[in-house]
Amino acid sequence: MAILKARFESPMGPIVAAAVGDAVTGLWFDGQRGFPAAASEWSTARSSVLGRLGNWLEAYFAGDNPPVDFELAADGTAFQRRVWAQLRQIGYGQTDTYGAIAKRLAAPGQAMAAQAVGQAVGRNPISIVIPCHRVVGANAKLTGYGGGLDRKEALLRLEGALSA
After folding, report:
1. 29 catalytic per annotation
2. CB 87, CB 135: distance < 8 Å
3. Which stretches of 54-163 are assigned E, i.e. beta strand?
4. Average per-residue pLDDT in the chain?
5. Domains and CATH numbers, the chain
6. Most buried residue among 51, 70, 151, 152 by CB atoms closer than 10 A?
């Protein structure tokens, strides 16, 4: 199936989204780490799922917490998908830490490194919707975001997770 793409404007800069069939498969700020080099070969065409994503982004950047009413299909390893599922559990305006996520994902009696979670978070292909910006370091320190720490901070401020 062909990969379709759409470009959206946001208060934080242009965003490129990708979809296959009825599922969103990617969402990146221009210049974001992890943006696929092959994106130049993707088709730009009308897509109902990309239209719904565009409406979602518009509502989100207006300060709303819209429900995700479209399918997400993030391609990754089983571990990455488990981490991304944890990210979707972090509420709007809330934050979580890499260490806390690692503890929840660790098998009983075993430890998991926060760094492993951090690597999976950093490979999240559907930023904002799978809210990797809501993960902070120990002591609520802002660390790592493929779109840049300035955008991470702006997203958290938009959601009310950081005071002005």
Report:
1. no
2. yes
3. 71-72, 96-97, 135-136
4. 91
5. 3-71 (3.30.160.70), 76-159 (1.10.10.10)
6. 152
Q: Which of 23-27, 62-66, 147-151 has the lowest mean pLDDT?
A: 147-151
> Is 135 within 8 Å of 121 (Cβ atoms)?
yes
pLDDT single digits (tens) 17-29: 999 999 999 999 9
Instruction: Give the residue carrying structure tokens 């809501």.
Output: 134
State the DSSP code for 139. Answer: G
Exactly one of 17, 83, 126, 132 is catalytic; name it. 132
> Are the C-beta atoms of residues 22 and 71 closer than 8 Å to each other?
yes
DSSP labels for 13-57?
--EEEEEETTEEEEEEETT-TT--GGGGGSEE---HHHHHHHHHH
Hey, is 68 helix, strand or coil? Answer: coil
Both tokens assigned to 123 = 């490979």
| CA-based radius of gyration for the chain | 16
